[in-house]
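User: Thanks for the earlier help. One more: Methionine aminopeptidase. Can you show the sequence and predicted structure together?

Assistant: Of course, both are below.
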Amino acid sequence: MIELKSAEEIRQMAVAGQFVGELLAELSGVAAVGVNLMDLEHHARRRIAERGAESCYWDYAPSFGRGPFRNVLCLSVNDAVLHGLPHDYVLRDGDLLSIDMAVGIDGWVADSALSVIVGTPDPADEKLIEATEVALEAGIAAAQPGGRLGDISAAIGDVARSYGYGVNAEFGGHGIGRTMHEAPHVSNDGRARRGLKLAPGLTVAIEPWFCRSTDKIKFDEDGWTIRSADGSRTAHSEHTVAITTTGPQVLTRRPTPDATSGGPTERSASAS
């Protein structure tokens, strides 16, 4: 069942979204050469507790995975792209780190992810991250009232192919609202003008992820961490988006530096 949210309910989701965006920006600044993944995990646990929020990952137990997830972040390094378990690993120069998180505040949920390079960047990794970010913005721009779910999927897939990457459709975006995973599934590839009609009040997490040289994946023995099948680098970007009568509203935009004052400012909440 798909629940369409009211304007007030979207506003409440935006509260959770703002916190998620701010914390992801904070974590991306903490991630550095010599930092342990568990330091990032415990930093996030502390901030979530201080805010009075609830992690959607803690005790999450889907059909895959071995036992409930007992962390508040997914931290995926290099060839790992989704559901990476935080563990005792010290970040090295040139590592590509994807950070994914979802929290609930007052019964409403937001979910977002980003990828960053720690230390010295490899141009090929920068291109890969850029492709996920461009695909995400294309997917958001396609999330127009009266359109179709396939418009979002097709926009993401088109960007992937334009960058020379394949698309894996096993895992993708999803509906979101009162819980982290709701209907509908939002594939990272598809056909425009097909599928569910996009109505105002629909809220979805759009999350393109690509591997550098394959569209195949494999699971670690932990049952959670998903990696590229050939060991190539990966990247992942995600936002929670509400479809409104005037277009898509991004609820998890991260603060960006103000060019004039040097302080943080919130990016526009609408797709440009």
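User: Great, one quick takeaway?

Assistant: Helices lie at 7-30, 37-51, 123-141, 149-162.
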